[in-house]
Amino acid sequence: MSHGSAAAVRSVRRSLQAAADLWSILFAGKWLLLGCAFTCALVAVAIAYALPVKYRAETLLKPARTDNNMLGQLGAVGGLASLAGLALPTDDRSAEARALLESKEFSMEFVRNENLLPVLFEKDWDAEAGRWRTNDPKRIPTELDAYRLLRDKVRTVSQDPQSRMVLLAIEWKDPELAASWANKMVALLNDKMRADALARSRRNLDFLRDEYEKTTVAPLREAISSVMENELQTSMLSSVERDYAFRVIDPAIVPNRRSSPNRVLIAVSGLAIGLALGTLAAVARFEPR
Q1: What is this structure's pTM?
Q2: Could you report the per-residue pLDDT of 144-173, keeping only the tens digit for each?
């Protein structure tokens, strides 16, 4: 047998002997090992059942686009409109809509409209008395606190870079409220962006009318008239578009299964940690003869 082969055989024998020694140690400390595993698994199960149950409601959204014919008509006068400081419609409002959806202003308005402070901070609210449990203004939850809670623990907004579909998810302990909030957020977002667009169009039209009356240069009056015509079309389009920012592809429905906690995963993780701790404890208490 060559020197290399002999060394390989000795290495295998040492590995087998080490495995056998470890098995002997674990078998000798089997009750300690099982006790650690059982205790950690029991603690994990208790934690899993103590954690609040949450449900996840999702709504799938498609960015709304303006009519392509409309965009073609506006292209000819886009330069003049830009010089005048007017905002012509773009073919995709998703970036602005996402920013507004996740903004403080929108979140606080939604909390205010739905009167969500007592719901979001239920532990601080005395439902029978109809007031907060504390009189300290610094400890009374505010709309800004509600925004932070929505941002960090309740609302999730994600967008697929290829399809550009937007997924709005709400996680809450009441499945009906989770679905309701998701759908109402989209409705409020569309209404708010449509109202803002109409307000801008009215301001733009007022500005254009003033400029049209002031100027006597025929070509400029004709150009302003064209911009006014297209601004009127933009205003009409905004008025009739129900889904101004996002079109709802799949509305949120009341979930019938909890999203968290994953009790099986927590229990298995506790068991694995217990086995690891039990192994370390059995090896640590082993005293070689």
Answers
A1: 0.69
A2: 999 999 999 999 999 988 888 999 999 999
